[in-house]
Design brief:
This protein has 48 helices and 7 strands. It is mostly helical.
């Protein structure tokens, strides 16, 4: 029975009830040791027929098969407990959670299925993609939740291995449409990233504490009040201390012990009362939970104590029946003491503080010897970590075993665990150079695991150990620059990366300088890259620098790089192709290359780079007028960037979302997201994102017809220097600046902006780039013919609609309403479909002024879809199955089906075939 926890239980039950109704979510229980978190979890999931009990997780597979469905249906329960000795074993906790449901793996998309199978050791696949793994865990939980829901409980989350924690939390953050509730219990302040709902488990209310003490131990109110004050009402402390009081102390006739035992000391006397064999077995169990290993190791250690070490082989000891009997006698004593129990084939301590008490009672030499024996009896990752536990001082042999364990974890997507193993290997490595290499590798693993702070610390340690080795120092410097570019000061990244001469390092430096907006640095770095042998990357990097410097050879290099676009296979290469096209003034081609980068990144296992790639995909979608798709991509990228700790990428997605809000006329969202982006990008000197964030309110003013305010903002953007603005933003926004200047009657300003755009598009050859240039000329020169020329050239429907609106306005004011109506109607319909409401209202108003009224709204049924629904509908129209869509968007197939289930009635259809007829796929 629980005392005084009605509010906490109610909070957990609400999360479970919402999950049963298809509105899944996660909750974290915080509390000190002994606060009663486990009891709360038990109470929340043990509501009679409402859940299959957690003991199923420890039963044989046959016992876990679904039985007859109850009237209301039984929510399935999966349960795992973080175990301190297994906290360094990659995916140990994930095994506990998913082992009962691996039979459902066949329902997952193939990339997700392969990633989960590899993590669980069911295949030798080496995808190493933590996003695919996290999505696979989400999909498997969703499958296991059918038909009545699932509760996933993870106790002692602070000891869950990092690889498992990352995968479980990825799923926990994406449960909104699943019938899954995830409950995490955490001791102290261990981080549970991205789960906002928490329940703080404090000491019991005084009345509840008194009721518990009176009911269980007959403690009178006065003594109960004293115990409650001394223990801060910690339920475990109250219960254990009360059980140990003498009758006189319980009755209040004698004073309470001073000091009262607390923490591990709650169980110190019980551990000390065990016989020597039982204490030894308890120590082994505190280091290794597997029953067979515990018995074999305890037997061998007992034999050593009586006969001396090295007298028997492991096989001989394991087979001795007498020793086996001794071990089981000791195990029986340990169980009878109430300190531990058997759960399946594992020894489980009554409370984690028992393990702490066992460790405190043992000497460090005894603990090392236990690890040494267990290392002889195990293999793989367990052996590596037991060897590390047995090590006394540096040992290259042990370090090498940990490196191998790290590689195995990394190959399966367990980057956090790999980082821990490599860092420990470095501690054990005697040679400074090898130590530095392992610290560097640990930093990379930590970075890919979404822990930038740890990565930077490890890299600093690697730098200290690298000594005079120039090659290693440059490798470390390149990583420092990349880390700085993603999450720190972009200008500092330029300084670090510019010190290298390799093509890769120069390319990274150009990328960083491009983010800053430092044209002089890009030119200088591009000239240095030109000294390298011909190739795609060299041509792109050198071509950008030379073109910016006015060198006639630059555009030729960029054209040569783009001619190889058909040979590219890597997302990073496609992004360089996009940069080359952008430098040539061809935004349509740049958008196409960015779109290809996104498609490749989703299927290529680009762990750690996907949030960055999505910056460019979202921008490309926006520039192409695919506003709903851009919104969905940026929302996804923002979530992934926050999870990975890529601060500057967070700013990029916020800035893009601000621009999208401007296009929809949402002033509050536009200003808020732009402000949040600037709060990151300005101090980090990320001029590109500063420029985009500043562009959002300027575009908002332009959309709403506030030309003077827009003109002032565009002028400020054009005058901002490196880190506070960006030449690419100045060039891309020049058409908007021309329009704003014309709207305010600033003819000189319009021509100035036109000249900026002409210089940037001097080498452009694509129709869309020439269309935008013609539009700018038409506005600056008040030329209808130039606007008509632009309309003939446009390949981007959204930009064509903007030109049509401008031409239609001119024609109406020139008293040519018939010609104006055709242009204005086209513009209105396009803006309505895109969701660009301010421009749609403007076009509609002009259309009415031109004499057209009563026209039905052009909005289609697709307008009722959310950005994610529209995105999924487009992929369906592309011919993708639910599994393929799930694999591409890191969703579960059931989530995809859920969105389609919501989409069909909105559109008044009932099949994928009908949906495909209504939707223009996003990639066409």
């Amino acid at each position: 029975m629980l005392y005084g926890r009605a509010a906490e239980v109610s909070a957990l039950e609400e999360v479970i009830a919402r999950a049963r109704d298809g509105r899944g979510g996660a909750v974290v229980l915080w509390g000190e040791a002994g606060a009663g978190k486990t009891a709360l979890l038990d109470a929340a999931i043990g509501q009679g027929d409402e859940a299959r009990m957690p003991e199923e997780a420890h039963a044989p597979d046959e016992a876990r098969m679904p039985g007859p469905v109850r009237d209301r249906g039984a929510m399935r329960v999966l349960r795992a407990t973080g175990i301190e000795p297994e906290s360094d074993l990659a995916f140990a906790a994930l095994h506990q959670v998913l082992r009962p449901v691996t039979g459902s793996l066949g329902a997952l998309p193939e990339p997700q299925r392969d990633a989960v199978r590899a993590a669980l050791g069911l295949s030798a696949d080496r995808s190493g993609d933590r996003y695919l793994l996290g999505a696979g865990v989400l999909s498997l939980l969703a499958e296991a939740a059918a038909p009545d829901g699932l509760v996933c409980v993870v106790d002692d989350f602070q000891w869950v291995d990092r690889a498992s924690a990352d995968a479980l939390l990825f799923a926990a953050r994406r449960l909104e449409t699943e019938r899954v509730a995830m409950l995490f219990a955490v001791r102290g302040d261990a981080p549970v990233k991205g789960v906002p709902l928490t329940v703080d488990v404090r000491g019991l209310p005084e009345q509840a504490a008194a009721e518990m003490l009176g009911s269980r131990h007959g403690v009178p109110p006065g003594v109960a009040r004293e115990l409650t004050a001394l223990t801060h009402a910690n339920p475990l402390a109250l219960d254990e201390i009360a059980a140990r009081l003498t009758p006189a102390q319980r009755a209040g006739r004698e004073p309470l012990p001073d000091p009262l035992p607390g923490g591990a000391r709650l169980f110190g006397d019980q551990v000390a009362a065990l016989s020597a064999p039982a204490r030894l077995l308890a120590l082994v169990a505190a280091v290794e939970a597997d029953l067979d290993l515990v018995l074999r190791a305890a037997d061998r250690l007992s034999a050593e104590r009586t006969e001396g070490p090295g007298q028997h082989t492991a096989d001989e000891v394991a087979g001795r029946s007498a020793g086996d009997r001794d071990g089981r006698v000791a195990l029986a004593e340990l169980e009878e003491s109430g300190l531990a129990e058997l759960r399946g084939a594992r020894v489980h301590f009554r409370h984690p503080l028992v393990r702490s008490a066992v460790h405190e009672a043992a000497g460090s030499a005894d603990v090392r010897r236990v690890h040494a024996v267990l290392a002889e009896l195990t293999g793989g990752d367990r052996r590596a970590w037991h060897l590390a536990g047995a090590a006394l001082g540096q040992d290259e042999r042990v370090a090498a075993e940990l490196v191998a364990a790290a590689e195995r974890a990394r190959d399966r997507g367990g980057y956090g665990t790999a980082a821990t193993a490599l860092a420990r290997a470095a501690e054990l490595t005697p040679a400074p150079y090898a130590c530095a290499v392992r610290l560097k590798d640990a930093a990379v693993a930590a970075w890919l695991g979404g822990r930038p702070g740890q990565a930077e610390s490890l890299l600093a340690d690697a730098r200290d150990q690298a000594g005079a080795d120039a090659g290693l120092a440059l490798e470390i410097a390149q990583l420092r620059g990349r880390f700085e570019l993603n999450s720190g000061n972009a200008a500092e990244a330029v300084r670090i990366l510019a010190a290298g001469d390799s093509l890769d390092m120069l390319a990274d430096a150009v990328e960083a300088a491009s983010y800053v907006g430092d044209t002089a640095a890009v030119v200088e770095l591009g000239q240095r890259a030109a000294a390298h042998p011909e190739g795609f990357l060299r041509d792109a990097v050198a071509g950008i620098g030379l073109t910016l410097n006015g060198d006639a050879a630059g555009p030729g290099l960029l054209r040569r790089a783009l001619a190889r676009a058909g040979e590219l296979t890597d997302a990073a290469e496609y992004l360089w192709a996009a940069a080359a096209a952008g430098q040539l003034g061809e935004p349509d081609l740049a958008n196409d290359m960015a779109d290809r980068a996104g498609r490749v990144a989703r299927v290529s296992g680009m762990t750690g780079q996907l949030p960055v790639v999505l910056e460019f995909v979202a921008t490309a979608d926006r520039l192409a007028g695919r506003l709903a798709s851009s919104q969905a991509v940026s929302e996804e990228g923002l979530e992934l960037a926050r999870e990975a700790g890529y601060t500057n990428t967070v700013a990029a997605h916020l800035a893009n979302l601000a621009v999208l809000a401007a296009l929809r006329g949402e002033e509050e969202s536009c200003e808020r997201q732009a402000r949040e982006a600037l709060a990151i990008a300005v101090p980090h000197r990320v001029g590109l994102r500063v420029g985009v964030a500043a562009y959002a309110p300027a575009l908002l003013d332009l959309c709403l017809g506030r030309y003077a305010a827009a003109h002032d903002r565009f002028t400020a953007i054009a005058g901002a220097g490196p880190g506070a603005g960006h030449p690419i933003v100045v060039w891309r926004t020049a058409p908007d600046r021309v329009e704003a200047a014309v709207g305010t009657g600033d003819e000189e300003g319009a021509w100035t902006a036109l000249e900026v755009y002409e210089r940037g598009a001097a080498h452009a050859a694509t129709p869309e780039s020439r269309a935008l240039l013609a539009r700018c000329r038409g506005l600056a020169a008040s030329s209808d013919d130039s606007l008509r020329e632009a309309l003939e050239l446009h390949t981007n429907p959204f930009e064509a609609a903007r030109t049509a609106l401008l031409l239609g306005e001119r024609l109406r004011r020139a008293q040519r309403p018939g010609e104006a109506r055709a242009q204005l109607r086209t513009a209105w319909e396009t803006f309505e479909r895109a969701g660009a409401r301010p421009w749609a209202r403007r076009a509609r108003s002009e259309l009415r002024a031109a004499g057209e009224s009563g026209q039905p709204s052009p909005s289609s049924a697709l307008d009722a879809l959310t950005p994610q629904e529209l995105r999924i509908a487009g992929l369906v129209a592309d011919g993708l199955s639910s599994k393929q869509i799930a694999a591409q968007l890191f969703l579960s197939p059931r989530t995809v089906e859920y969105h389609l289930y919501k989409t069909y009635p909105k559109l008044g259809i009932g099949s994928r075939t009908e949906l495909a007829r209504l939707v223009v796929p996003p990639n066409r």
